[in-house]
Batch of 4 targets.
Target 1
Amino acid sequence: SARKRGHFKVCEAVLFGLRNVGNTCFLNAIVQCLSHTRSLRDYCLMRTYLQDKHSNQEPVLMNEFSKVLAGLWECDGGETTVNPSKFYHVFKDSVPYFSGYSQQDAQEFLRFLLDRLHTEINRRPSKRPSFRAFKSLIVSCRISEEAFAMWQRHLDRDDSKIVDLFSGQLRSSLHCSVCSHYSNTFDVFCDLSLPIPKKSDYGRTVTLRECLDLFSQEEKLVQENSPMCERCNRRTESTKRLSIQRFPRILVIHLNRFAMSRYSISKSTVPVSFPLNGLDLGPFGPVDCGPVLYDLYAVCNHSGTVNMGHYTAACREEEGWCYYNDSCVGEITEEKLQSNQSYVLFYELKSCNIVRK
């Protein structure tokens, strides 16, 4: 069965996998997760980006990405496995870092892919606004006004469907221990990379809330590593805290399982439990912002070791969850979603008391 959506049909009964075309499980898992990002999927299938983009150049990567999504969701009566080789070839031409056929990191692929898609469909001209002229507008503003001004500056040069969906804003607050001066900087993010606490007991499960607490906890900076205090005009001992100033519609959480030392990379296999519904990020946002609730719709998993790993995906369908292992597709229970393999979590904003501008 299928239902009509604009000028295309979206399959409901048949679930499609992606062919592995040479160590491309990282690509297949991420693409399955993105294909279940409904607003992005519909935007691609209806080819709205052709009217949105400012550049006259052909959006080659976006076209190929949309073709893959069309293969996954449009009913044509053919095979139930989609070949992403043309899309991957175009992506590698755009991002030479991914040349070759070695295994790649799924989160890195996601970041590069979203960045390149955004570049192709950016609604803004390439001319950059003057920061010097802009900065005079944000002197002595309240935090919320300064954050909004910085966000508008970002949109003046980077505005696309990717930004609409995935971009949020982090606030970094620096407190000088000498003069007690607070200074704030604001950065745009497309995913939150969370540290995983080291478990004290064997087999202990860590919660996503503990990862968020560790991410946002106050960090002490010694004088040598501290930025210049705006008031003291010198480096002083200070504290730094991160919080979310602006919440994205699609929240991508990267569980930082891989740690790099001087000579090697190790992987954390600590199980992390996460809510399927009602993840509240309000406590990590502006003061008194109220509940900010998200529902989970996709998970990218990594099994195995650093050198011999494999990526799969689990995505929410109309009647439950499905497991995507390259070309193989099957059902999965909600209980089995929770494991020590979860790597990238995809949440959709459910409700938020903050007015988005």
Note: The chain has eleven helices and 20 strands.
Target 2
Amino acid sequence: MYDSLGPRGGGEMDPHNKCMGGRVWCVSDICGIICAVMTWLLVTYAEFVVVTVVVGTANYPIYTTLNLLLFNVFAVLALSSHTRAMFTDPGAVPKGNATRENIQRMGLREGQVIFKCPKCCSIKPERAHHCSVCQRCIRKMDHHCPWVNNCVGENNQKFFVLFTFYIALLSLHGLFLGIYQFIICVKSEWRECSSFSPPATVVLLLFLIFESLLFAIFTAVMFFTQVNAIWNDETGIEQLKKEQASWEKKSRWRSIQAVFGRFSLTWFSPFTSPPLPTKTHSYMYAV
């Protein structure tokens, strides 16, 4: 029955959801691509308003330098985290690996049950779920996020958590700067508070404040939801379905280390990869 699915081995490249010659993971979902582009455009808009309206007309060099530096650091870290979350394989199980050869290699005990996904014809590991957007089974899948145009799973959850964390910080900083500049403009009766006309300045600042408030709330809630799920060694899907834990739960500290690695400053860096999972069966992992 399984031979008809094709002889996928552990060393063969899985071509699905890959671009740039198979070197980069990418999901061809138009809704996700639009949301991902919107994320970058919104951050770019906030950068434009902060540079041209908020700090561009300030008369305090230290205030200008510190806020500009801090805002740009948050922006770079947020967009870097977004990029890593979007283009990192979240933990996809290779399509069509449910072959007789692979099942025999698993060394199953008598009476032991394996699960096969009928949609992507793959052996379904414990805690894996099928994503209808990625059209793949994803190991330790938390959810599919259109804002990063990818699933959040075993390999990229660290980057997604950092993305929500830095966007929340960026939004809170933008909210403070926008409100503070608005107060200054009102007190000065809109004289020399911006290089733009008063009506244009009002529109730019109000949209910055609205955008910052909205995304500060949204990403902060998402960040604490993710941290809570990691803390309890559960995924968003498992919490939603209220699944009984059939797996051996890690301690809270080990659960955090499984996502971020051993404690160090690299926890907060989107430029360092999370710890690699132990590959008990190499054919369960895409090359």
Note: The chain has a mean pLDDT of 85.
Target 3
Amino acid sequence: MNHSSHPTGHMALLKKINQILLLLLVLTVCAILYNKVHQVPSALKNETVDLESPEEMEEEIPVVICAAAGRMGAAVAAISSIYSNTEANVLFYIVGLKTTIPHIRRWIENSKLKEIKFKVVEFNPMVLKGKIRQDASRPELLQPLNFVRFYLPLLIQKHEKVIYLDDDIIVQGDIQELYDTKLAPGHAAAFSDDCDLPSTHEMVRSVGMQNTYMGFLDYRKQAIRDLGISPSTCSFNPGVIVANMTEWKHQRITKQLEKWMQRNVEENLYSSTLGGGVATSPMLIVFHGKYSTINPMWHIRHLGWSPDAHYSEHFLQEAKLLHWNGRYKPWDYPSVHTDLWENWFIPDPSGKFKLIRPES
């Protein structure tokens, strides 16, 4: 009898061991599964955060364009040309005055531009109070939005690098290329030099245009002579800017520009001289010798300087960005190379903005 009960005890022990092993196995499998479910995704999640965020930040290209009353079609054509010629992730900052914002918003939302990423920013002209000297010869140059470029860091919060463009431009290249412009250490901005293109020199000579500091600042004034800038120094055009916001804030560029606006109100240092009004001159002073340069093909200018000034078609096709600076705008008449501009124009759904063309 004793003999027969022995195997039974043996079996019970084996069974118990098996149960424990099975339990351990189940626990191990559970632990593995738990880790798989809980840890791997969190590791993955960390990885995606690490991988994606900086890239997304880098890839968003902020482009600032003003939408002024009476010339909103210009902003629309500029935006349309940029958006159509790039795969980049562009975020448009469209800056307007309180009265014009609803119009530009409706225009975008009711046209093929409704696909774009954009923010509408209101510019308060009160910041200019007491800083602008009235200039009767070209009142359009005193429009508040001409000074938006002075206040970029106040309008654009989260970006390190920003592109500012005048509204009378068309972009034919990929805006990513312009955004990739290298700024030298310590430079808050890059501009186009007015002496950079042989083809523009011809144009400049033929229409008596200014491309030196002499054309913008009044060298009869002591304050200007005290700057020690030679009058024959080549000027630059601030209608296309690639700006570094960190440097801009660090160097207090906005404060410096305001200081020169204020001095001009008191001493008339530049507004009545020949050049492009009151927004260019303070920039020429503040950025003198402290700016990087933009590839010349990214700013072909003076298309609005004279209704008779023509560039060669081949040259204009090669150009990455066209700028109708001057009095003769492509939505107006007379003007030159209007076909290149009209390619990108989108009619105003409200019908308020109309192109001015000779009666056919």
Note: Confidence is low (pLDDT under 50) at residues 1-5, 39-52.
Target 4
Amino acid sequence: MLKLSCNAADQIQALAQCRFLDPSKPGLLPSRRRAAAAAVVSCSPAGKAPTLAVVSDGPARVEPGPGSLADRLRLGSLTEDGLSYKERFIVRCYEVGMNKTATVETIANLLQEVGGNHAQSVGFSTDGFATTPTMRKLNLIWVTARMHIEIYKYPTWSDVVEIETWCQGEGRIGTRRDWIIKDYATGQVTGRATSKWVMMNQETRRLQKVDDDVRDEYLIFCPRESRLAFPEKNNGSLKKIAKLEDSAQYSRLGLVPRRADLDMNQHVNNVTYIGWVLESMPQEIIDSYELQMITLDYRRECQHDDVVDSLSSHEPDENSEDISQLKGTNGSAASPAAEDYCQFLHLLRLSGDGLEINRGRTQWRKKPIR
């Protein structure tokens, strides 16, 4: 069994500094211990002297215990009251872009991951749908209706982010899931997100109201009182999105789902739509701005053989005060100049018949000087 002599609070910080030493090389361990040791882990948290821990001979393994191996290894768990779930993630090198900051697709994938892990932690299904027992009996699944993400500061390569999530009822036709994103090292809120989900029959693909049996199964794991990631009045997550017409300023036509874009349910993954939306953004915006907010309304499922068009246009800033206040929430910097921001409307549609797949809105801020 692998044993780290670091304190639990230091394990995340020490992880990037841990190195495996070859005990077969002279001088690393006394000769009488070389045969018994398979590896040595040297951990050096900031401000502490290096310590050594011997790994026992043979393949490392985790001692038997409750839950799956993944449950015991992941850095996440239910909060003390059992009504939300927190998990920590290290930003990997393949999750960042050219400027070494995490992409918005990375953020969205982490939100999806922590939501699924939350559902599993309370005993819901592991089939990718987070279904309750009654839903499985009735062949019902959850599908995304809206996703809204705001990012105040992007994490960089090797940063550790902590994401908290919880769900609650949303009228008679669905549920909502919210997230708070923090820099684990500082505790600073670096992003927030919210989503709406509706229930659909997996065979007929028709929406269905959430009945009392299903509601009773998941509400016991939800906050007793309404808890919102965006409690502000008239916040961006509530704004309607106008449909973008054919006179779009920018377009990227003929996008085709790759095999890697399909999720475990054989449909195009929700995060893929974000990438398609950004495909039609003008290069000068990508070069000089970074995405601060994205809202997507999901209107239609996309199959593996569909061909998609991405359309984008500048959206007139009808209320500049809303944009200037966007960065003033959660302890962020005061409102900057209006010219430091721009916003766009987006439309994803099927190339053949023009049927709407997705409509969206993005807001962008000038990239910080690094």
Note: The two ends are 43 Å apart (CA to CA).
